[in-house]
Amino acid sequence: MHTSLDGFVAGPNGEMNWISFDDELFDFVGTLADKADTALYGRVTYEMMQAYWPTAGQKPNASKHDKEHSAWYAKVPKVVLSTTLNEKNLDNTKIISNQLAANITQLKNQDGKNILIFGSPRASHSLLSEGLVDEFWLFVNPILIGTGIPLFKGITDPIKLKLVETKTFGCGVIALHYERKRD
After folding, report:
1. Which of 16, 39, 48, 82 shows the smallest number of beta carbons within 10 Å?
2. Does the pLDDT value for residue 183 go beyond 80?
């Protein structure tokens, strides 16, 4: 998840125009996607992804990243946390609208690769409050935005983390990889 240095994942109205990218970062995120066989989204992020990725790789000016991620997006099963979406007419997509802990635990216990959540701050807050997040990839952007949607919200008990690795990108973003410590 991208975050500003002051801990926001989007502006007050969901703005993300402050996020820094470069080819090196896109390639790195591609390696993370290659290690996942399920994409998890909140409704808002899913709708944003659906509006772009199904056809992004087919456009005449599509970048290498657009082509690669569009192909990955087309094949990967998607899980959306939503109480308003309906699974009808959604290709390769499952909706979880209740029993979050039970449904995500069942998903995590299936054989396969990683489950990767892209953005989706509100969904991340819900998953975190249920103890369902095992690791974080935080992409800290070199900007202070002052207000917006916080990276973390509603944490009532400390969550201990272990720093696994860091990576710095030419665009100024620093990736921090944390695993959750289980006592």
Report:
1. 16
2. no
Residues 6+ apart with CB under 8 A from 84: 43
Question: 3-state class of 106 per DSSP?
Answer: helix
Distance from C-alpha of 183 to C-alpha of 174, rounded to nearest angstrom: 28
Superfamily of domain 2-180: Dihydrofolate Reductase, subunit A (3.40.430.10)
Q: Which helix (H) or strand (E) holds 177?
A: strand 174-180
Tell me how far apart the alpha carbons of residues 124 and 130 are, in angstroms, rounded to a whole number: 10
pLDDT at 146: 97
Say whether 153 sits in a helix, a strand or coil.
Answer: coil
Show contacts of 174-177: CB within 8 Å, 24+ apart: 174/139, 174/140, 175/28, 175/137, 175/138, 175/139, 175/140, 176/136, 176/137, 176/138, 176/140, 177/135, 177/136, 177/137
CB within 8 Å of 140: residues ≥ 6 apart: 3, 4, 5, 173, 174, 175, 176
- Burial class of residue 173 (count of CB atoms within 10 Å of its CB; 0-12, 13-18, 19+): buried
β-sheet with 2-4: strand ranges across: 2-4, 135-141, 174-180, 161-168
Q: Are 97 and 111 in contact (CB under 8 A)?
A: no
